[in-house]
Design a protein that fits this description.
By secondary structure, this protein is of the alpha/beta class. The chain folds into two domains: 45 residues, no CATH class; 123 residues, Sugar-phosphate isomerase, RpiB/LacA/LacB (Ribose 5-phosphate Isomerase B, Chain: A), CATH 3.40.1400.10. The protein is 41% helix and 17% strand. A five-stranded parallel beta sheet has the order 6-5-7-9-8, sandwiched between helices. Helix 4 crosses helix 5 and helix 6 packs parallel to helix 7. The chain is globular and about 55 Å long.
Amino acid sequence: MDRVLITEKMILDARRRREKKITIRGEALLTPSARDAVRQFGIEIVTAGAEQHGPAMPADAEKPSIRTSRGPVAIGADHGGFALKSVLVGHLHDLGFEVRDVGTFSTDAVDYPDYAEQVALLVSRAEARAGIIVDGAGIGSCMAANKVPGVRAACCNDLYTAANSREHNGANVLTLGSMVVGEGLAKKIVTLWLQTDFGGGRHKRRVDKIMAIEQKHNR
């Protein structure tokens, strides 16, 4: 059964239309904010028959979407993340994304900051719509990527933080730990992360404050 991503904006739009339920085709997957909004406003998520179609996620100019942005998805890894990176490159192609693979291309020992920086720079320069970095735990690459201006990297080794990092924090780089997640979960995380849009609204105000801190200390 297909999984349909339900976002906070979809819940709020339904409330503004005075609708008490959202009908979808497939299994509902709610972002963290959407789950809170469902509880707050009492909106029901209903699964329809295969002949019915669920609502499409609306576009919003204030909410940049990885799915509709131009450019490739940049990906990189150290030797510990090489095998999982290879799997994810194929997965990204299957999802229809162009891929910019910066390496590494073997299991020979390398240093993860070098590859994290390359991916982060492509995102910072708008030469890639988003970035993915894989090392053993995902933490070191996240730290390194976040040193590049304009990058908001998030280490997400589960589905909840993957959706949250995009919807709440506007993350533009995802880091994964090859020693933490298996291939199947990694594919699900990448898919969810890429299809989740930034929530805007109150989240935009907070992300703006994050970027203001960066600007203040990079003068």
